[in-house]
């Protein structure tokens, strides 16, 4: 029986790269996005590359709790994920003291609350099964203060704390938990900036790091993956 992976926000960037890396190894996929066309494009491309595997896509706004819970219930009709990757996120630049009203709520709901609700939806079954792997895609903005980071940075610091707590709670149930903290990675968030592409990390490198952590023996876990551009942070 094929293993499966659930990746939120899987149509682009790091999420898309993780999906393709695990699909290459034979995993079936569950994923979601707010954009119906992006989901259709992903599904079509997936079956072209992996015709003998399954992908389940759903339109979900991860900032809305009810949609997150409905997505979890839909996935449960098929399986409890072997691997859960909390990847969905949004970045709106700004300073805490001057960013637009509502930025804080939107980024906390999308970047943190969604991971909290979705993870809680599957942990009881993972504990009962005595297996599972949970990855949280954070950011180096959750380790270091940056100007213009604002509420995004707050959400990523909180995400790291959430993941550390989860690791401690689930370690005796044979469930591994890893925080992934990438630096500047060439994704849609950076489109249009006047910075050479070679200053960015590749999404494939982040996906490869996730795959490598997943493949350790049962006796070891990578608690945090900090990965930065070779020439340093932007």
TrEMBL record:
<dbReference type="GO" id="GO:0016491">
    <property type="term" value="F:oxidoreductase activity"/>
</dbReference>
<keyword id="KW-0560">Oxidoreductase</keyword>
<dbReference type="InterPro" id="IPR036291">
    <property type="entry name" value="NAD(P)-bd_dom_sf"/>
</dbReference>
<protein>
    <submittedName>
        <fullName>Short-chain dehydrogenase</fullName>
    </submittedName>
</protein>
<dbReference type="Pfam" id="PF00106">
    <property type="entry name" value="adh_short"/>
</dbReference>
<comment type="similarity">
    <text>Belongs to the short-chain dehydrogenases/reductases (SDR) family.</text>
</comment>
<dbReference type="InterPro" id="IPR002347">
    <property type="entry name" value="SDR_fam"/>
</dbReference>
<dbReference type="InterPro" id="IPR020904">
    <property type="entry name" value="Sc_DH/Rdtase_CS"/>
</dbReference>
């Amino acid at each position: 029986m094929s293993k499966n992976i659930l990746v939120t926000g899987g149509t682009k960037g790091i999420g898309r790269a993780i999906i393709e890396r695990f699909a290459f190894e034979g995993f079936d996929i569950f994923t979601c996005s707010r954009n119906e066309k992006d989901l259709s494009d992903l599904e079509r491309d997936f079956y072209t590359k992996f015709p003998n595997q399954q992908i389940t896509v759903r339109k979900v706004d991860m900032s809305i709790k009810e949609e997150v819970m409905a997505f979890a219930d839909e996935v449960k009709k098929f399986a409890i994920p072997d691997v859960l990757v909390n990847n969905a996120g949004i970045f709106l630049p700004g300073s805490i003291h001057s960013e637009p009203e509502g930025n804080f709520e939107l980024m906390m709901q999308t970047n943190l609350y969604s991971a909290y609700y979705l993870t809680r939806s599957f942990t009881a079954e993972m504990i009962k099964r005595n297996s599972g792997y949970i990855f949280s895609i954070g950011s180096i903005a959750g380790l270091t203060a940056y100007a213009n980071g604002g509420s995004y940075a707050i959400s990523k610091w909180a995400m790291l704390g959430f993941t550390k707590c989860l690791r401690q709670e689930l370690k005796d149930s044979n469930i591994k938990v890893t925080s992934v903290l990438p630096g500047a990675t060439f994704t849609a968030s950076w489109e249009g900036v006047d910075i050479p592409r070679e200053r960015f990390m590749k999404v494939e490198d982040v996906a490869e790091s996730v795959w490598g952590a997943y493949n350790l023996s049962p006796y070891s876990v990578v608690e945090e993956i900090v990965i930065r551009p070779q020439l340093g942070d932007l």
